[in-house]
Amino acid sequence: MSVINSANLAPVTYLNMTNTHADFDSCSLDRIEAATQVVDSGVIAHFKGLTLTSHFQPIFSLAHKRPVGYEALLRATNREGNAVSPLAVFNLLLAEQETVYLDRLCRNLHLRNFLSLSDDTCWLFLNVNPMVTFKGKRYGAYFAELLSRYQMPAHRVVIEILEESIQDEALLGNAVSYYKELGCLIAIDDFGAGHSNFDRIWSLSPQIVKLDRSIIVQAANNHHVRRVLPNLINLIHESGSLSLMEGVETEQEALIAMDSGIDFIQGYYFSKPVHPALRRSQNLTHIPALYEKFRQFTADETKRYHAKLQDYVAAFKNSVRLIERGLDIRDACADFINQPCARRCYLLNHTGSQLGGNITATGHNPADNDPRFLPTADTRDANWSRRHYFRRAMSNQGEVQISRPYLSITGANMCVTLSVQIVVDHEIQVFCSDIDWNDEFSF
Question: With contact defined as beta carbons under 8 Å apart, do 401 and 320 qualify?
Fold first, then answer.
């Protein structure tokens, strides 16, 4: 492996760069490496009076319980040795050519420092601005040459695309295609922030989708977001991408992320970004301990969930016994329907079609809940065969099924449905009861 020391090449000038063809060589690999220097701690770079270096934050696979990649992050100090934020560094840029130059300088720095980690399998995550990729073509080839010089396989590089940074779909697609053709993996960064949408996932087909920290913060503080999070992860998986939760900083956030079905995880709770020279001193063994806490976490969640419903389940089972003995359904449901959060009871035939109307508390008018949903209040002959609670009841004869909370079309309220397959007059039916899942029930 060849290493180029800054003493062997003339320094590059950055303050007065222009967009003329005469300056294209200032962004070439050799000229970029003229601003780098090999020191005892690794490779550093010099830019506008600043010293630049790399830090790396591990990205863990929860299934494998170990790091599978490292995100490269820029660190900078001024002449006095004071830290300068990466944002402040990029705010020094005055022209397009400087932007391309600094982007290439950072990738050079990060790749060479990553190689010092002595790992021949983990991914290197590199942040790339798609506009730089597009405009960089004006300054000659670079990244493929960089990979070749340091014998870095493209399949070990994950290019993080901040998809909101470019609105032109064609330009974004071309930038992604360039890296895919090199053999790199693609990750959509900060998904869920701003105006992110699934159109970009479907059109770009990234291997990894990184969820913005704001999502896990909201999930930890809002039970509605937490309930939806596993479905979001499932949708990402069904779109053909793996999922990565970034910005996990507390044990609670880590447990919620695990519960969501996330593939990869990153954040201060697991490890802060560190200089490559310090990586080996990190304690990266706490994920197995987290799994033990997760088992208790999920057990407690299930226990609380069923504890909240135990009185309703008992009343529901009593209604089933009375129906099977031949009692009229309205009389059989009397005790259940008088429970504080009981919403309705109803019977379905073996095809999922509702038999008659809903059984509700005496004097209850469905429109009283929210008159805006009066068009969906009448459920006579409605077909619920697509609902999980019907299909699960039909597949588990005699066993009471408890659904997860979901939005009921009948009144646009969050509810939980109890369901069970029964036999009435020699006909298979499914008895169902809905419970209003309000904020008092949530946890």
Answer: no
- Domain boundaries of the chain, sorted by first residue: 6-285, 300-436
The CA-CA-CA angle for residues 410, 413, 418, to 5°, reads 75
Span 372-395, pLDDT tens digits: 778 888 888 899 999 999 999 999
pTM of the model: 0.82
Q: Is the pLDDT of residue 95 over 70?
A: yes
Beta-strand relationship, 414-424 and 66-77: unpaired
Distance, CA of 186 to CA of 197 (rounded, Å): 17
In Å, what is the CA distance from 428 to each residue of 78, 223, 356, 393, 394? 77, 37, 16, 11, 9
The CATH number of 300-436, from 3.40.50.700, 3.50.50.60, 3.20.20.150, 3.30.450.20, is 3.30.450.20
Non-local (6+) Cβ contacts of 414 within 8 A are: 405, 406, 407, 408, 436, 437, 438
CA 157 to chain CA centroid, nearest Å: 20
In this prediction, residue 7 carries a pLDDT of: 31
Model confidence at 21, pLDDT cuts 50, 70, 90, reads very low
- DSSP letter (8 states) at residue 12: P
CATH number of 6-285: 3.20.20.450
Place of tokens 């922030």: 193
CA 209/CA 190 separation, integer angstroms: 8
Q: What angle do CA 153, 262, 284 make, to 5 degrees?
A: 65
pLDDT exceeds cutoff 50 at 312: yes
What are the CA-CA distances from residue 175 to residues 58, 104, 178, 280, 416 (Å)?
A: 26, 15, 5, 35, 46
Sequence-separated contacts (24+) of 228-235 with Cβ below 8 Å: 229/256, 229/260, 230/259, 230/260, 230/261, 232/260, 233/260, 233/261, 233/262, 234/261, 235/198
CA angle 270, 241, 192 (to 5 degrees): 65
